[in-house]
What we know:
The chain is built from 1 helix and 12 strands, in the order E-E-E-E-E-E-E-E-E-E-E-E-H. With 188 residues, it is mostly beta strands. The strands form 3 sheets. It has a 5-stranded mixed beta sheet, covered by helices on one side. Strand 5 (62-67) and strand 6 (70-71) form a beta hairpin.
Amino acid sequence: xxxxxxxxxxxxxxxxxxxxxxxxxxxxxxxxxxxxxxxxxxxxxxxxxxxxxxxxxxxxxxxxxxxxxxxxxxxxxxxxxxxxxxxxxxxxxxxxxxxxxxxxxxxxxxxxxxxxxxxxxxxxxxxxxxxxxxxxxxxxxxxxxxxxxxxxxxxxxxxxxxxxxxxxxxxxxxxxxxxxxxxxxxxx
Length: 188
């Protein structure tokens, strides 16, 4: 299985991205075209006095969003399947309780779902096809007493793309630590 870990975000070219309206303070990002699963990661700071934090996230195919190592929401296999050329669903969660003052880390685990179904040579597949490489868009709205900040998927950060030399389940469990750096490998 191809698996990629991205530290920071990878900005997709406008030709490969879906349209985003003015509501979003973020851009579509993704990994390599042949990855079956990717993790997109971003560290960010939270100032004292946070009153409310809301995340909006869409992952194509399916995604799991986590903050500081804890899954956000109770949903499985989100978002629902659509004709991705016409509609992309996104979810909104209140994440105030999952954030802490100081450094925080957000992870998006992306898998193909119905968005990217590879050829199945050794098993039955009702259909095959891909709408494109895996991608996501997310923004966290941080509301303070006197101002609002957004942390969104964008080109910031130093991306690392490539296969991980250990099982995906281990990678997902260990990448939620703040401070994991480009090229570093978590200890078993």
